[in-house]
Amino acid sequence: MLIIHSPKTAIETNKIQDGEQMEGFAKYNTKLEQVFHLWKKDYNSNFSNHSNITASKVRELIDIATLRESGVFFTSDALAEKAINSFNEPIDDSSLVVDPTCGSGSLLVAASRKLSVMPLASETLEQWGKQLCGIDLFPEFVYCTKLRLVLESLVRGAEADKSLPELLDLLTNIHTGDCLENIAVIAKATHLALNPPYNNSKTVAKYRWANGKINNAAIYYYELSQVLKDGSSISAILPDVLRSGSRFEAWRNAIESTLSISKVSVEGRFDKQTDIDIFILNGLVDRKTPSIIEWQTAETLGLEGSPKLRDFFEVSVGAVVPYRDPHEGKLYAYIHPKTLPRWGEIGKISENRKFSGRVFQPPFVAIRRTSGPRDRHRAVPTIVLGKRLVAVENHLIVLTPKNGSLDRCRELLKLLKEENINEFLNNRIRCRHLTVSAISEIPWRFE
Ligand SMILES: C[S@@+](CC[C@H](N)C(=O)[O-])C[C@H]1O[C@@H](n2cnc3c(N)ncnc32)[C@H](O)[C@@H]1O
Asked: Of the candidates 255, 275, 295, which is a domain's last residue?
């Protein structure tokens, strides 16, 4: 909520501030300027014929991979493209796309590819200038973003009808500044594209979800998403620790109250050179009807395609509803949550009842249906043994091993103790009742 000191001074990396690196970066900008002039004026140059081949060469040059040679690491074009393509609402000619930490502009270049191109670069850039907003602390980066957008308009077929400074000036909403102090423009965004700094804040911040020196990505995402209006779309490239780290659970809960129709896409490493895992978070700002974010699904846990519990057990809910079902039919052993030892085995069942519905043959595992995200274990089981058929109360889920083996039941008990299974269930189902489908989807790791 409240930042004691603005993380303004917490600039991304010392590397970027390093004079030598900035010099390399300035060289890259000069290269882009040269491409513009060759494209525009020099009819003997390789760039003057404006063919598709030349266009793709220019694209290669403005690709951020080239920029790496200058020692600066920023969003790759492929990742930027993915982030822009995954907005909930598509970008069109009435959108305002804001990148509050635009760096060298990969996200804005990718966003510009969703906008129309007009015959002249001046009219194209005037329109893009109204629809694309970028902020960065460093003027060199801002300049780079603008240069790349000018070249992008040429590559897309617009005629370079004005000088470079005149064209750059049309991109009026791309400027130097601290995004946390430029909240008014961010509030107008229809689309927020965000790849914030990932280092820890240099100063102490105090929020209801965390105190101290916090990962800036958590702070920037939180602060910037707070000012967005309902209906706007977010696409954020964030460090994976925000998605999976237990110390960011409170952050995850805090931001969940503003998003609906969200999607989490785990992307692995930021790039080959940078050993940071990342994910893309998409969603629609919706404070009235926010919905649960699936931070960890079977897919995000990397378990997609692996065997599931349902492959080895029949899973169903106990059939006895005590207040409703008459004591009629055959007499059976009868179990309900209170009669079962947690994490234990029961062979001698003392309660009996008459029942005319579905009954179960031991051995099987019974799991209590009622549990919540704060419980130490979400799924608390008991193994039921013996020869007698058992009537089961409907606050229990019954898992009968398909091969009839007690060993399989014991393996299941071991599995349910594991932390990642808790995490899986907590993310799969946050309400207090476990469901047959959530239990059936638990990944099985013994085969
Ligand atoms: C991960 S990089 C963004 C990369 C960018 N998407 C690209 O295509 O190159 C983070 C950027 O945030 C900028 N930055 C850090 N703090 C900022 C702030 N308070 N306001 C604006 N920009 C900031 C850094 O200068 C850096 O360029």
From this structure: 295
